[in-house]
Specification:
Structural class: mainly alpha
Radius of gyration: 22 Å
Strand content: under 5%
Largest sheet: none
Number of domains: 1
Distance between the termini: 51 Å
Helix content: 55-70%
């Protein structure tokens, strides 16, 4: 359904897809419609700015974290054990 706001989208539609837009996970047409809406709708642009700031803050605060190799190894071993255990389960009707 096409909305009646700028870019043919209602504010609700734009804000529902703002993270897809920020992550560049929309097709070109939808991306352009969202951009047009944001250019013509001050409340959505303000909300978009807040969402964008939060995303940047999270990336800056958490983006550089790397799990230690010992943790990665332990997780791989546990996953392998869980896969082996699951393949040997017997299901019985009770």
């Amino acid at each position: 359904m096409t909305g009646f706001g700028p870019g043919g989208m209602d504010c609700e539609e734009v804000l529902a897809d703002v993270y897809l837009y920020l992550d560049d996970e929309t097709d070109g047409e939808v991306r352009q419609r969202i951009r047009t809406h944001l250019d013509g709708c001050a409340p959505c642009l303000r909300q978009f700015g807040l969402e964008q700031d939060v995303k940047v803050l999270v990336a800056r605060s958490c983006g550089g974290d790397v799990a230690p190799s010992s943790l990665k190894s332990r997780i791989r071993i546990r996953l392998q054990q869980a896969a082996i255990d699951a393949s040997h389960l017997e299901y019985r009707a009770e």
